[in-house]
Amino acid sequence: MKKLNIIPFLLFINLCPVYSQTQIGQTLTEFAADDTFGASVAINDAGNRILTSAPRFNTNGVDLAGRADAYQLEGDRWVPLGSTLEGVPTVVGLFGQGLDMSASGNRIALGNNNAQPQVYEWNEAIGDWEQMGEDLEFPGQPDADCKTFRFTQDENTLVVGATGSGSESVSQFQWNGTNWIAVGNPLEVPVQNELAISDNAQTVAVLFRENRGANGIRIYTFNGTDWSLQFTRTFSASIIVSDGFDLSADGTRIVLSYGDDQNAASGVTFETYDLIGGDWVKEISDLNVTPLRERNNALRMSADGTTFIVGTGMEGGGEEGAGTRIYQQRNNAWELAHYFDYDNYDESILGNVDITPDGSKVVFGRSRRTNVGFVEVYEISEVLGTSEFDDHNYTVYPNPTTGHFKIDADNKERVSRVVITDVTGKVVREVSSSAGHRINDSNLELEGEPGLYFVTIFSTSGGRSFKLLKI
C-alpha cells in the first residue's frame, strides 16, 4: 500500500493559493451556422477590448469570405466597437483567419488567403475603424497566405508570418505616418501557422517543418536589416511540434510544446528555455499533460513569462483533452491554476487564446463548423489558500480527504458542474447537476492515487479552482 506523508502536504496546501475565475461580460456566439466564429481572438492590455473573427462567414453573398468584429466592454456587456470589418471579399478568402490587436486596442491587423493584409486604427471622432495606409505588400509573394500578425508594444511595428506555395516568410513592417513600409529583408523560413515576438520585435520565434519531416522551433534576432539564428530545437518526423508556443516580452524565455505522433498516450510535453549568459538553457521542469495531443493547440504567455494559457481541442486529445488551461510558475515547475472545459464544443482553430501582459485576463474562442462557435473573457486571480475553502459561496470539506468530499453552496450560487484534474491538468472526473437540482454529493468521489488534485466549481457567476489533498 502506498503511504503519503501528510504533514508536508498539509503545509503545502495551506501555503499555496486558491484560484478564482470570473467571466467578464456575456458569451459571444456565432453570426451564422458554420461561420467558425471564435477561430481567432485577441485582447488589449487593459482587457476591455477584444477582436474576434469568423473566417468562414459568407460576406455579401461571397462564400467563405470571412469577417472580423471588435468589441468594447461597457458595464457588464461586450458591445460592438465600430463596423464589421470585411476586407476585400473573395471566395474562400477567410478574412480574419489571422489577426492581432495592439496594446491600446486602437490598432488591429487582419489577414486572409490572398496576401491582402490590412491594418486599421480606431477613429474616435467618427466612431469607427479606418484603414491605415494601403494593403501590406509582399513583393514576389502574390500567393501568400497571411496567418499570423504581431504588433510591437509601441504599436508602430508589425510582424507578419506568411505561408503558401514557395512564399513562406516572416516580414517586418513599420508605420511611417502614411503607410506600412517593409523593413529589412524577409526571413525566408518554412514557417507554419504561428510565430512569436518580443515586445520590440528584435527577437522572433517560428515553427518550421521541412520536406523530410524534421520540424521544430527556431529563434532569430533582427538587426534592422537581416536575421540571425540564435536557437534551434529540432525534432524527428515522428515528434510533432505544436502550434502552441510563445516568447516572453523581453524575448528571453520561450515555452514550446510537442507530442509523439506515433504514441498518442504520451500526451503533450511543454518545454521552457531561458536565455542566460548568452545560452538557451532549461531551468524549469518539463510539463507533460496526457489528455492532450500536439495538433490544433494555441498558447500565449504573460509579459514576464510566468503564466501561460493553452487551448486544445477534441481532435487533438479526445473529450477529456478539450479545453483551456492556465499554468503559473511555482519555483522551478509549472502548476495548473485554472481549467475551462468546453461542454459540447470541440476542435481548436489556431490562434484562439490570448492573455493580457499582466496575466490577469484571458480570452478564448472555440469554433467548429458542426457546432456553435463562441468567445469568452475571464478575469483570473488567486485568493489565500486554506485547508477549508469558504468564500461566502462555497464550502468544500473535508480537506484532506480519503476520497469522498462535499460541497455546500449559498442559495444564490447553484453549483452546475464540478471538474477534478490532476496536477498536470488531466481530467480525472466530471460531475454535472441535472436541471433544477444541485450536485449530488454521493457523486463527489476522488478516485486515483493519493496526492494533490484540483477541483474547479462552476456556477452562475463563474468558477473557482482549489486544491484538494487525497490521503
Structural account:
- The chain is mainly beta.
- It has 2 domains: 19-382, YVTN repeat-like/Quinoprotein amine dehydrogenase (Methylamine Dehydrogenase, Chain H, 7 Propeller); 394-470, Macroglobulin (MG2) domain (Immunoglobulin-like), CATH 2.60.40.
- 3% of the residues lie in helices and 48% in strands.
- The protein is built from 2 helices and 37 strands.
- The chain has helices at residues 6-15, 314-317; strands at 18-29, 41-43, 49-54, 67-74, 77-80, 98-101, 107-111, 118-123, 128-131, 145-151, 157-163, 169-175, 180-187, 191-197, 203-209, 215-222, 227-235, 239-241, 246-247, 253-260, 268-276, 279-281, 287-289, 298-301, 307-312, 323-330, 333-340, 353-355, 361-366, 374-383, 389-390, 394-397, 406-409, 417-421, 427-432, 451-459, 462-470.
- The protein has an 8-stranded antiparallel β-sheet with strand order 28-29-30-1-37-36-34-35, with helices on one face. Strands 18, 19, 20, 21, 22 and 23 form a 6-stranded antiparallel β-sheet that branches. The protein has a 4-stranded antiparallel β-sheet with strand order 2-3-4-5, with no helix packed on it.
- β7 (107-111) and β8 form a beta hairpin.
- The protein is globular.
- The model is unreliable at 1-15, 344-351 and 384-392 (pLDDT under 50).
- The global form is globular
Task: Give the second-level CATH assignment, the architecture of the largest domain.
Answer: 7 Propeller
Neighbour order of strands in the largest sheet: 28-29-30-1-37-36-34-35
Please report the distance between the alpha carbons of the first and last residues: 12 Å
Radius of gyration, Cα only, in angstroms? 22 Å
**Structure class:** mainly beta
CATH C-level name of the largest domain: Mainly Beta
Strand coverage percent? over 45%
Task: Look up the CATH topology of the largest domain.
Answer: Methylamine Dehydrogenase, Chain H
Mean of all residue-level pLDDT scores: 82
How many domains? 2
Helix proportion:
under 10%
CATH homologous superfamily (4th level) name of the largest domain: YVTN repeat-like/Quinoprotein amine dehydrogenase
Number of strands: 37
Unreliable segments of 5+ consecutive residues: 1-15, 344-351, 384-392
Number of helices in the DSSP assignment: 2
Q: Mind summarizing the main beta sheet? A: 8 strands, antiparallel
